[in-house]
Specification:
The chain contains six helices and no strands. By secondary structure, it is an all-alpha fold. It has one domain. The radius of gyration is 19 Å and the shape is globular. The termini are far apart. About 8% of the residues have low confidence.
Length: 112
């Protein structure tokens, strides 16, 4: 028995789910949709109604399609890249706009 067969048989005997073994579905398009929504909301909160970049929405749809196609071939790669894009969007400021996490912290009411 080779190493992969040993890992699979050990995982099955322990009761590891298929999702843990890499058989998870393609969540890349949904994560990209969340990333686009966060980008759009951050833009809206930063600039108000007058300065919103409406191009974010169609490009998010293009990204969802691309990640759907990538996920059909390699779901783990699509999911990993989508999570990387989401974390980057949340934590890194772009083009002089604050990171969404900073916008959120400044928008929420302060505790007493």
């Amino acid at each position: 028995m080779n190493a992969i067969g040993t890992v699979k048989s050990t995982a099955q005997s322990v009761g590891t789910s298929k999702a843990v073994m890499g058989g998870a579905g393609n969540y890349g398009p949904a994560i990209i949709a969340a990333t686009g929504g966060i980008t759009f909301a951050n833009e809206w909160l930063s600039k108000g109604n007058s300065g919103v970049n409406w191009g974010i929405l169609p490009w998010t749809a293009v990204g969802m399609l691309a990640f759907s196609l990538l996920g059909a071939v390699e779901p783990f790669l699509a999911n990993s890249l989508a999570v990387t894009a989401l974390l980057t969007e949340l934590l890194v400021p772009f083009k002089g706009k604050p990171a969404p996490i900073n916008t959120l912290l400044h928008t929420l009411p302060k505790g007493s």
